[in-house]
């Protein structure tokens, strides 16, 4: 995945983030533009994104808490919360994906980023005409603190730390 991570770093998908509150008052990571203005993860915001180097430079000039990227098509992001590296599920996932892995912003979670073939994923079209991952494969399970996002299907960005797990 090292090459794929470099591919991601070269893409204009990077943005900054700062801490905010969600609708329930809980802390959340709010994306914003590398220029300092508003941003988001829809294509309409793509003019506010830059490369990894652009985002890193912008972070130094701003009050951003971190940098992140819009998950592009043909990539996935597996977000594992509140589990130690020694956890059997974590070990299984790390071995299965053998991909770029890092500690999360909190240090108590793990991110796994990888490539996938978008055309081979089991998908369907919802009633609004959007492509969705088949419900039996979509994963956002708060009971086991595991979330799976697929670029091109789930409109998501990932907070990147660079705190690599070997």
Describe this entry's structure for a reader.
The protein is 17% helix and 31% strand. It has 166 residues and is of the alpha+beta class. Strands 5-6-4-10-9 form a 5-stranded antiparallel β-sheet, with helices on both faces. The longest helix is centred in the middle third of the chain and has 10 residues, at 88-97. It is globular. The N and C termini lie close together (12 Å). The mean pLDDT is 89.
The separation of the N and C termini measures 12 Å
Structural class: alpha+beta
Main beta sheet, described? 5 strands, antiparallel
Instruction: Determine the fraction of residues in helical runs and give it as a percent range.
Output: 10-25%
Portion in beta strands: 25-35%
Query: What integer value in Å does the Rg equal?
Result: 16 Å
| Unreliable residue runs | none
Biggest β-sheet: strands ordered side by side in the sheet: 5-6-4-10-9
SSE string, helix = H, strand = E?
Answer: HEEHEEHEEEEEEE
Say how many strands there are: 11
Query: What is the average per-residue confidence, as pLDDT, rounded to a whole number?
Result: 89
Number of DSSP helices? Answer: 3
Shape: globular
What's the arrangement of secondary structure elements?
Layout: H1 2-10, E1 14-21, E2 27-32, H2 52-60, E3 66-70, E4 75-80, H3 88-97, E5 100-103, E6 110-115, E7 123-125, E8 131-133, E9 140-141, E10 146-150, E11 157-160
